[in-house]
Amino acid sequence: MPSYRIAKTAELDILFDWLADQLRQLRQANPDHRVILDHLDQQYNQAETKLALLQTLLALKDPNFDKRADKLAHDLSRYVVPTANHYIAGLQRQGPEDRRVRGVLLRLCKRLRLDWIEDILVCLRRDLALLAEYRGIFAIPVFFGPPHLLETILEVPGIYHEFGHSVFARDDVFFREMSSIVKRHFAQLKQQAGPIPPAQKALRDQELDRAASSWSALWLAEIFCDLFAGYVCGPANLASMVDLGRAQGFPPYLLASNSHPPNGARVSASYFALSDQQRQHSTVQKIHDAWQNFARGFTPGQDYKLRCAEDLLRSLADAVNALIAQHLPNIPRYTKMPADLTAARGVKAGIELEDLINAGVTILFEAPHEFPKWQQSSRLLIS
């Protein structure tokens, strides 16, 4: 075992030399990412201190320090992987479109008052995702997206969903409060069962406990991000969720993922997240009808009805709206109605992204034959 520790430490020493060299080169090649590189340098210096301590412990050849040495080696490996795989690799591959999208996202974060985000590393090579945290730091997220991200209005609301992950991860109040709502919901169902034989009650309680356990941190994070997107970009998010659910082709009530709730639950929650006035708007009704017409071709099973009951989804939507308003009062809620056709057709330079994508939704659902031409011209307005 000592020989392994010596070899592992030597490997880490080589990797640290490589990281130091890459960081020096990247600072020259990426002056616009100075903030990210400052954070990376700071983390490198802290990790380098740990590496020196590891080397000192091994030089002592004292078995009493073996566990501490192993923990240090483990921590250093966990430092190297995201630093190299996400930040070094992402900075090495920055292209013009990555930089363009970065500008759009930084302006979006400023409008939404996500003030803790200092810079964003954009990597347009995969599906939408956000690495919200780097070693306890929320200031420099890595944003992943497809290369065609700004080519289609229906893709854009997913951006707001991804930044919801930064909001959710940064403050555990959202997880705690949403978890409490889920627990109360299923506790009330247990109480509503009435007097039943003990054996039957035990089976019923087990069934309810299994249903409650579906709402893991992963499920809650995803539903929060859907609701956050609805909070900040309104009806456009509902349209995007309907498009996602239909385009994926999965049965809307399928309980097959440990990381994401069924699409039926996500669309319903996104609908409930809108204001009463927005839900009553004719364009929003058309969006919702597009989902309902699709979902009618499927039958929800008893498991789905139990785990994703409408009153639970409505409670989560109401709670998240209230929590955002309470804990992040500077984040603006999108309360506007969908634009009418005349306004949607007449969008001009300087329009905010949230208004632009909502105008696109109006065109898509009210005058779909005009959408391709509108899309081609309007994408030039994204800034």
Strand order of the largest sheet: 1-3-2
Helix tally equals 17
- Helix amount: 55-70%
Rg from Cα: 24 Å
Got a strand count?
3
Shape: flat
Termini distance?
A: 56 Å
Bin the strand percentage: under 5%
Instruction: Give a short account of the largest sheet.
Output: 3 strands, mixed
Uncertain runs with pLDDT below 50, 5 residues or more? none
Count of the separate structural domains: 3
| Mean pLDDT rating | 95
Word description of this protein:
The protein is flat. With 383 residues, it is mainly alpha-helical. 68% of the residues lie in helices and 2% in strands. The protein folds into three domains: 91 residues; 57 residues, no CATH class; 231 residues, no CATH class. The N and C termini lie far apart (56 Å). Helix 8 packs parallel to helix 10.
Concise summary:
This protein is mostly helical and 383 residues long. It has helices at 2-29, 34-60, 66-92, 96-111, 157-170, 173-192, 198-213, 217-233, 235-248, 263-273, 276-280, 282-295, 302-307, 310-327, 341-345, 353-366, 371-378, and strands at residues 121-123, 129-131, 142-144.
